[in-house]
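Record type: monomer structure entry
Structure origin: computed from sequence
Chain ID: A
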Amino acid sequence: MRTYSLDDVYETRKRRDSWWTVYFVDPVACRVALPVANHTRLTPNALTVLSLVLGTVSAACFAANHLIAGAGFFYLSFMIDCVDGKIARLKGTGTPFGLWLDYVGDRIRVVLCAGGLAYGQYALTGDVRYVVLGAAVAVLDLFRYVNAPQMKRVREAIREERQEAEPHLLGGPQQISADPLGADPLGVDPVGPDPFLTEHPEGEPRGRTPRSRTFHRFFRRLNRFLARHRVRSHLVSGIEFHAAVFVIAPIAGAWALIPLAAASGALLLANEVFLVYRMWLFTRRHGVGSPQQSREHVLV
């Protein structure tokens, strides 16, 4: 049986990931993945189930008002959830069912932990705001993971239409082959340049004002800087939202739950609105055919 090195494990890291994962989870997850790969027969699916079990323990701790323990178990749950992907890529043992299990398990963990936090704090204080907090966290998380695949479908529909209209684009410029939304519903970060930051062949995109060109260049430089550090350009995603609500706020104390959840939730929602705006720009820039045809293509 092959013996893996830490460098082998590092090769399984996503090309770009959330800053929370890059700086606070991957350094631990890689070192945990190494002995798991070399000394156990644990499969990625078994690790996913273990992650869900730890997430359930975290929810129970939150419900019992043991906030620091709940935060610790949530971190362990997310870290093991990262390990399962590394083992799958390292050994080539990933399966479509495992992808589904990982996706659904993440949603179950968030709903359980949101419910645990809400129940524990409401039972302790009788403050209905904690019930609203739990519901809002669950709804925001579900919206994030419903919105992302639908935006991806829009991109794919436009790409297909564009390639039908201009066959030479098949396998051509990456400005329509990369994920324009910077978000993947299953947590697989896009590779290649962001098409919103890709120049048109003839130079600057038409109709762009000097101010928008300046912003465009700044955003391009920022994106390149973040890419060198493996950090995604959308800095407030679901992962940072989960970390704020289920790790940072509980460690800070009960007083931090509502303000941190509200602040991180607002940033997450703003990020989603920005992604939708970028999708709208993408449809204007690359859409082909009549609006009615494009609508029917997306909705089929």
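Annotation 1: DSSP finds ten helices and no strands in the chain.
Annotation 2: The longest helix spans residues 129-165.
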